[in-house]
Amino acid sequence: MRAGGSDPIREAVRLLAERRNAVALTGAGISVESGIPSFRGAQGMWAKYDPMEYATLHAFMRSPRKVWAMLSEMVSVCGGAAPNAAHKGLAALEETGVVRAVITQNVDGLHQAAGSRRVIEYHGNLDVLICVSCWKRYPTRERWTPGGVPLCDCGEILKPNVVLFGEPIPWLAQEQAEEEARTCGVLLVIGTSAQVSPACDIPRIAKESGAAVVEINPEPTSLTASVTDIQLQGNASALIARLIELLLDPAV
Ligand code: APR
């Protein structure tokens, strides 16, 4: 089902209002308007840091101090960021029963900061550090200092509780995300290039299970032509605000 007619956003609103069991899958693009760079694209993190050198588990185990140079930038930027209208809009849609869960690839914690309660952190989060030797955990704020390399009491270097390339997705997050995708009526895919597996499989799982896939992104992605039913082209904060405005308009 492709968005017929001239107004895809009204079609999206109709589906959200009718089905009222939407799930959101978010990527770095939803946090761009909070000042957190995305990963891909000219200004992305991977234009500055080669992910094969800085974002794989192998790289971390081989050169943890080098990888911490990139991680420190992420911790600093995310620590100073606030939720934007898109995060707050999704929290409002959860409050009104339109959206029942957010599956996020982001590790910035901004969905929870905006008030979303059911957030599945598919790639972990930056709030916790784990010892790669004794597995002891610490709140990041207790052990990380800007530009520093956090150490465990046992002397080993600590790793953030994020999924680096080459690491498995936390099994509970993967199970929960796939169950949400299989049972939702609408999947809002917001701010992701859909290039990283297995997160990029979630829209296909939802589609094959009968959900309508609504994509919010200024650019088309690998999903747009084959999986997306309704493409809303633009920035997440403006489009989510417009969705909420129309959902509140009884004339829709
Ligand atoms: N609103 C909505 N989408 C936006 C905005 C915005 N204001 N600005 C940019 N985008 C879109 C871009 O067009 C792009 O499609 O957000 C997407 C960001 O893509 P990526 O940088 O690839 O981020 P993401 O898809 O989340 O990456 C997935 O890859 O590197 C790994 O683990 C990392 O979780 C990350 C995963």
Mean pLDDT: 95
* Structure classification: alpha/beta
Helix count equals 11
Helix-strand sequence: HEHHHHHEHEEEHEHEHEEH
Number of strands: 9
Bound molecules: adenosine-5-diphosphoribose
Reported by name, the CATH topology of the largest domain is: Rossmann fold
How are the strands ordered across the major sheet?
Answer: 3-2-1-7-8-9
Question: In one word, what is the shape?
Answer: elongated
CATH H level, superfamily name of the largest domain? TPP-binding domain
Low-confidence stretches: none
Describe the structure concisely for a colleague.
This protein has about 250 residues and is of the alpha/beta class. The chain has two domains: about 1-35 and about 85-125 and about 170-250, TPP-binding domain (Rossmann fold, 3-Layer(aba) Sandwich), CATH 3.40.50; about 35-80 and about 125-160, SIR2/SIRT2 'Small Domain' (2-Layer Sandwich), CATH 3.30.1600. Helices cover about 35% and strands about 20% of the residues.
